[in-house]
Specification:
nine-stranded mixed sheet; 22% strand; 36% helix; alpha/beta
Length: 237
Amino acid sequence: MLHPPSANSARISEIFSSLQGEGTHLGERHLFVRFEECHIHCNYCDELDKPGTDYRLEEVLGQILKLEAEEGPHRFVSLTGGEPLLYVSFLKALIPRLKEHGFRVYLETNGILWQALEDVVGWCDCIAMDMKPASVTKEANYDKEHRRFLAVAKSKQTFVKIIVSRDIFFTEFESQMRIIAEMAPHVPVVLVPISDDIEGHENPELMRIMGELQRIGARYGLDVRIVPRFHKILGIR
């Protein structure tokens, strides 16, 4: 990492209140803490150019309490990024303080760093776990890590999010469905359509593909949902 965190400080790009735009908690008001760095660089990521600032623990907590008073109540404090589990030393200090103030914790993660998850999973109330098809991300295949991650996460309220473009390989997707069916068949699977020029749900060919993928997941007994990016539709953060 360019800026390794400590228990008392971390690089954070923004702290804000908004509606949750993805997943099973769509439309709820969340208080977002966005960490700067990520260890992978997905082809579609729109957060790579958001530089962070050094925040001390008390500064983060102070901003959260201020936003809660001004714009709350919030359903969750959402720890997002970047990849928040890169900042596990900071999370181990921050999350217990959030719990002292009665906040519920929503962890949004790329679903790879399962060892870091083990350190904080007991404090998490909801885990929004990505599974990364290499055909879409243009990154490595992380199915082995996703399997280990899901084994840790499934004890909590968890859902799996998969970003889908027209580049997706059906064989790769089906392999991920088998992992979920084997490890945590009760976990919902949220498919999010993305397209280069327009929002994914506006692309008829992509939506046809999404329907086929949903049927594949259903054949494995999974709860597979197609959920466009609500925050992009509304034009909010």
